[in-house]
């Protein structure tokens, strides 16, 4: 496997371009640069497939192209991060049209407002709270974001505890919803991207908010 180094802002941009949780960094770059993806009949996005990779499984085939992992370039004041894969989540739901107000969300969620929180999990909950405040009805769609064996959003703590161990559910303030929080920053970024996409926000807003979150 080969690696490349990227800057912090490009890393955040790539994470913000996630169309579905479970899409790897290599798949995101392939889609953005080559437009190579397959859409299943039910509307879910699945991993891209290359014909030369498929041919490589046949007898006497030449060596298949080497997958590429993405590594962030070292920054002056931050540690380098290695991006291997956006954590997998199944049962992905394609974003549906919603009354998304890009400007309103950006006024509520930006580097300045996130700095009021010392903990990453509190920033995570704050972003979800603002998304709910702006679209309380449409927010119910986030319950469709599920892992292989667990739910990530629910309307009760007990419901999340029943779907897996060590989920560490926390309430999204003033929303009536709970979310699993025992995950790393990369997974939280993927979850935020999926939520914003489901609610109908533009790619620019998704990239801006995930970048602000990743830089804190």
Percent range for β-strand residues:
5-15%
Radius of gyration: 18 Å
Q: List the uncertain runs.
A: 37-64, 76-98
Number of strands: 8
Total count of helical runs of at least 4 residues: 9
Q: Based on Cα principal axes, name the global outline.
A: globular
Mean pLDDT score, rounded?
76
N-end to C-end Cα span: 30 Å
Q: How would you classify the helix and strand content by structural class?
A: alpha+beta
- State the strand order across the main sheet: 1-4-5
Share of helix, binned: 25-40%
> Main sheet, how many strands, which sense, barrel?
3 strands, mixed
| SSE sequence, one letter per element | EHHEEHEEHHHEHEEHH
What is the compact description of this entry?
The protein is of the alpha+beta class and 216 residues long. It has helices at residues 8-16, 25-34, 51-55, 102-108, 111-114, 120-134, 157-161, 185-198, 203-215; strands spanning 2-6, 38-39, 45-46, 68-72, 82-83, 153-154, 169-172, 177-180. It is globular and about 45 Å long.
């Amino acid at each position: 496997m080969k690696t490349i180094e990227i800057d912090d802002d490009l890393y955040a941009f790539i994470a913000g371009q996630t169309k579905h949780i479970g899409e790897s960094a290599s798949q995101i770059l392939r889609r953005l640069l080559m437009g190579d993806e397959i859409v299943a009949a039910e509307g879910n996005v699945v991993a891209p497939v290359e014909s030369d990779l498929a041919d490589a499984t046949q007898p006497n085939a030449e060596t298949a192209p080497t997958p590429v992992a993405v590594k962030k370039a070292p920054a002056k004041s931050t540690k380098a991060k290695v991006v291997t894969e956006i954590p997998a989540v199944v049962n992905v739901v394609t974003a549906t049209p919603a009354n998304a107000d890009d400007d309103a969300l950006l006024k509520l969620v930006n580097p300045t407002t996130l700095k009021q929180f010392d903990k990453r999990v509190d920033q995570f909950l704050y972003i979800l709270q603002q998304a709910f405040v702006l679209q309380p009805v449409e927010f119910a769609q986030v319950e469709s974001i599920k892992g292989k064996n667990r739910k990530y959003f629910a309307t009760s703590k007990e419901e999340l505890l029943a779907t897996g161990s060590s989920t560490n559910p926390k309430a999204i303030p003033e929303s009536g919803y709970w979310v699993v929080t025992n995950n790393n920053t990369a997974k939280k970024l993927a979850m935020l991207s999926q939520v914003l996409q489901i609610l109908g926000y533009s790619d620019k807003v998704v990239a801006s908010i995930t970048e602000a979150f990743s830089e804190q």
